[in-house]
Amino acid sequence: MRLLAPLLLTLATTAQADTGLSDRIAAEGLRVTEVSLAALPSPTPSDRFALGGVRFLAGLERALQLRYAVGLSEGLAVASGVPVLGLPIAENPSPEPFEPGMIDDLFRGVESDMAGALAALSTIQDSDEVAVEIDTADLWFDIDANGIRAPGEGVMEVAAFALAGGFRTEVPSTTIRFDTADAAWLSAYAHLLSGLSEAILALAPSDAIARVLDARAAFEALGLPPPKYDYLFGGDMGDTADLLAMFVMAVEGQPDPARSRATRDHLLATVQDNRRFWSLVPREGDDDREWIPNKNQHSATGLPFPPDTGARWLAVLSDAEGVLKGDLLIPFWRVGPGAGLDLHALLENPPELDVAGMIQGATFTPFLREGRLADGRNLLVFEQLVQGDSALYAVMLN
């Protein structure tokens, strides 16, 4: 879950200092704060930025609450590596019955909250003045939905596991002052999570989850422990097989075209918001607890940003945009270097998917054509710039 950890760290900083919102979030939580921000009769640009950030975090909180309610704190949910599902949460001692359709509900909820965040952020203009800051120690997720902060519910506690590369450790809090450019950055992340949610919902995984869970129950009903296969899967062959089966069953079938198109559109909007962000960052003349700095600033996170970071990252995103628009093709092993897969066409009218056809290539033949291929050179240059730590920087920059 390295993807969401720095995101949580940074989006946790969405409250206006001179209005006491940091204390309000600490005392009352995200949803109460969201209601009060949404009710402001004449919100300032900083208020609207704060509302967008709180709605973003509240969307993650809603997903964590659903997971906790039905006991999805470990096992297949975490092993899946799917954003939101892999964040560490405490085990519920008295979970409600789990229904496979709850996974669809979870991502529909994320999608709804991201739409609310985008609605607030879209009203902020480049000429507006945004000044928003908070101590990340004040932010928490009401995971058990009881309205009281408990150990393990702090944003930094939830993010610590992923930020530490898989080792639970303490992550220090920090104060970051967000400004106008960061509204575009936050909007880009809301579009990114919206796109991921649309992609999952396009596959409608509930039936696949139900089949796998029914089979697990049948195996367990026999009352005999399964054999160990430590030499292959470390003793977890059953979980590994179930996870693979769940993935294959979810992928196979007819994706929802409306949702596959929405996935593409949100990802393109992520690129557009990044361009807007990097057009605004160089205009900043201050150096005050910055999130992502320009060449004359410093990041409050302590992470160094080389002077060419923006230009190199935008080159990577331009390649991604080219793939999403069909201007660049994805290399495919069955065709030569002058042809590839047109992802734009595939997402516009997705075919019925089957894993065998995807591996062999029959599924993709209508979407293979001659053209220029994406080659990954810009990503390699970016990785060299950040000294091989491109995954972390990619998450920070989105």
Description:
By secondary structure, this protein is mainly α. Helix content is 53%, strand content 4%. The protein has two domains: 5-204 and 256-279, no CATH class; 280-397, no CATH class. The chain contains 17 helices and four strands. The chain has a two-stranded antiparallel sheet. A two-stranded antiparallel sheet has the order 3-4. It is globular, with a radius of gyration of 22 Å.
Question: Can you give keywords for this protein?
Answer:
mainly alpha, 398 residues, globular, two-stranded antiparallel sheet, two-stranded antiparallel ribbon, 53% helix, single chain, disordered N terminus, 2 domains, 4 strands
Please mark out the parts with pLDDT under 50 across 5 or more consecutive residues, or reply none: 1-19, 164-168, 230-234
Q: Can you give the mean pLDDT?
A: 85
Q: Let me know the number of strands.
A: 4
Order of helices and strands: HHHHHHEHEHHHHHHEHHEHH
